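User: For documentation purposes, I need each entry recorded in a consistent format: the amino acid sequence on its own, followed directly by the corresponding structure tokens. There are two entries in this batch. Please keep commentary to a minimum and don't merge the entries.

Assistant: Recorded as requested. Entry 1:
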Amino acid sequence: MVLAVESLNRLLHCWILLISLIFVVNGQFPTTLEGPFKPVTVPVNYSIIGQVTSLPVDDNPPLSPEIEFQPQQISLSLSSDLSSVWVSWITGEYQIGDDIEPLDPQSVASVVQYGVYKSGRNNLAAGSSFIYSQQYPNEDLNNYTSGIIHRVLVTGLDPDTMYEYQCGDPSIPAMSEVHYFRTMPSPSKDYPSRVAVVGGLGLTYNTSTTISHMAANHPDLALLVGDLSFADLYCKNGTLCDFQNCSFPQSPLQETYQPRWDHWGRFMQILTATVPTMVIEGDHEIEKQADNLTFTAYNYRFAFPSDESGSTLYYSFNAGGIHFVMLGAYVPYDKSSDQYKWLERDLFNVNRSVTPWLVAAWHPPWYSTYKDHYREAECMRVQMEELLYKHGVDIVFNGHVKAYERSNRVYNYTLDPCGPVHITVGSGGNEMNLTLEHADEPGNCPDPSNTPDRFMGGFCGFNFTSGPAAGNFCWNEQPEYSAYRESSFGYGILEVKNQTHALWMWYRNQDRYSVGADGIYIVRQPDRCPS
């Protein structure tokens, strides 16, 4: 049965690649060389707008383990070493309430049995285990302690090779089912064939459609650009908060229902157990608790290649001939900060003959034209945009805004053939419905005084000083740097074809998984642009 499924997956993958090849031959997709393009706004399809419904996880927890200490919430992520992959999972149940007794991490082993596909799982790797807690000083909020989190680094892997593995404790025995993954290709030789990108997932019926469509497109790598479980939108009783009836709406602490993370991790296993998944934090991952601790669940639940950066909130990695830079919008980013200095070193050390493509990702977009979160990350843009431009970043991925938008090549709000293409993909499912209104529509331009950086501090929301919007905070029409925008749930796929051409496709949930709504070839010009 497993072999039959694997053969079917390979056949579907080949069919998708064949369709892409036909598109290339027929010249169906435009290229950025033909731009800049006239701005397009897709009319809202109100048939998909309605009440967002959460999955009924409390009555029927997805993939809840049947055997005590059986692995759940299995996920893969890349390490800084191209021959290694992190495998993470959780065993045991979380504890929640006032009088809780945490599980002993040493009571269950952390073992991965693995091998090249069809050759047997004769290799063993062992790792570490730990728990984390979400603590509140007020007795009216429920303290939480996680199940046992296991993390194993599997080393000595060959590039572009299919592996099979099981994880767990073989002495109990409590092992997972057999899962499969493919390692990244070698730098300068090839690229991951399909990189899925999405943000704003949550755990709703829309999320389910997004992830099932994404999995059907067989990505080799997934990027999640923040706003993952939305656990911070749930009150202590597990119900969605309305922000007025939570226990302490004016408290500096943030009420958050941590079991939502466990439900989300179980559901996401259909993707993360087979596709290496790299995440960057969003504002919904802050989850402030006692002693001013933040990002606790985010830091513990995911593995990161953070050896060089020294932080889980910003880091970089290679995937074949692509160098990814994941930046933190909710940690200091000014020119004197550790993040900025690390970014300078990281970009300086990129060898474009080895990794020709340079892709950056962070949560809040710089070039969104929607009313929600309009120019919210302006201070970050002021500090970092010049550095990214100087080093020739090709593509930027963001989330935060619950809609889709793709820019023309842009730098400092000016059309620039060497600027990056900025792509917002923040509508993976979420718990808050879609963003519909645009800042350039009559009556929608926010008051600049309401757009300071509420997390890092500072105010940079000044009026434009040049161009069609000079003297104003917003344009009075869709800005020329905005090429395409649409309010729909969905995700995107990046297919890097060679050193200069990459196909970007936006997929909407209301369409078939193989039908893209927006597609363009992003073309690098290394002889013309800085790199």
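Entry 2:
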Amino acid sequence: MHFSSCLCALLVALVYQVSGMDTVIGLYGETIEVPCNNGAPKPKDLFMTKWKYDDGDLLTQLKDQDASVIATDKYKDRVSMAENSSLLIAAATLKDEKTFTCMVVAGADISEYPVKLLIHKAPTGVEITALATELEIGKPTQLGQCRTSDANPAASITWFKNKKPLVADGKGIIISSNVKVDEATGLTTTSSTLQYTAEKGDTAALFTCGALNTLSSPVSFTVTYPTERISLHVISKGPLMEGANMTLKCKADGNPPPTSFNFHILGKVVKVENSDSYTVTDVTRESTGEYKCSIIDNAKMEDSKNITINYLDMSLSPSGKVMKSFGEGLALTLQTHASGELKVSWTKDNGKLDSSPKFDKLTYSDSGKYEVVVTMGALIKKDSFELVVEGVPVIRRVAKRRSEDGQHKVLTCEAEGSPKPTVAWSVNGTSADESPYVNGKITHKLTIVPTVNLTVVCTVSNEHGQDTRTINVSTLFEEVRMDKQDSSDEGDTTKLVVGVIVGLLLATVVVGLAYWLYMKKSKQGSWKTGEKEDGSTEESKKLEEKIEEKLEENSQKVEV
């Protein structure tokens, strides 16, 4: 009695506090944790924690003791208390959507923390049923029904076309939805019906529907619409040219497309059934003209196309292997006939030529393989001929020189001719060297050691004839002696010239000195005898003229 009075007095003294309500969302069928006081730490002076709901208490826990389950209804075996005082509810169902309250007694305070519990469940799947067999342009058609089940809250369904959501406009797109609730589980099933008016571009469109993050499998539909336009197409492998096959294809924009057509082939009508194509074989340049195609049951719906059959004719003269003689002319003729603009190019031995070759006077360098290529767009024609220029060999030059070591003579014979000339010398040499045979030219070198003076003959020959040239070759000993003699003669000549110059200079000095002495004596005599100076002056002038002539003559000799 005394303890009860004290407990009542304690409870009366407590301050009662109620906090605002929190909301917790749990998943259907899972264990749900409902936090007490939003998960705040336990107070230090905690006395008791208790969980309850509108229909009664669930469980309670005194400080430092295990929680005790008080519930006797459906929660008896499904509730427990976590270490942090949270309420744990196992196997949650929609019937657990209630308000649960955590009451905490600490010191002189009693606090309550109500928590509203909501149970969610994602739909089990999304699928489209009741599919339309086809869609007709401009006609509203029920495309299908999208359905998703076992959801809470009820799922919202969205329709998509090519991954873009469709929005109902009450005209071309009409969407209606329906929700049913399972009485046993409380879960919902949502269905949505799409009525759609198709367009021509919907032929390959993919339709899906989805709820939350779940999408149905995509579906497509055959969209039907009448033919409004046809087009004629030409199909061929490469350019249309004579001898090729040409396929005409008539395409219609209707769906399904027509299966029978009329083809107008240069005024002739050909009826084709169960196909949209017709092949014209082995076309010629006369096949150029207007072609048409039309629908059998509507002749006014047609298309036409002007078709040109390309052709390229080419004739080259000469052709094959052409044999010609040196110095002759060769007439080259290229004739072309084509349906378009041409491009002509020439090559000689695979090397490109800047212009067409001309052969007014053939040389050996004109020999080679000539190829002409004529193109018109993708059309290409080629022809070629091989020109061989032949003639009697001719020696263009013979020469001689001393080798670098001074111990040999090197003879050179340069010749032209075709076929390749054979070179022969009238003497034997220590070594022979022949250059490559290019453009009818060949150079042959022979190294010899002549012991006597020789006249050497170079002979070149082929099947058309021969040519010879001679060259005089002296011995190496004779050339050395002559070199020394030439050197000695040059020294003696130099000495002689120097002596002559010195002698002339001395003579000039002597003559000048004699003249000076003479003039001196002449003047002294005239002073003494009293003779007139006119006569002596005249004689003096004559003497001076003779001396000047002598000096000039000596000067000319020195220059020589």
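Summary note for entry 2:
The helical segments are 2-13, 476-529, 533-559.
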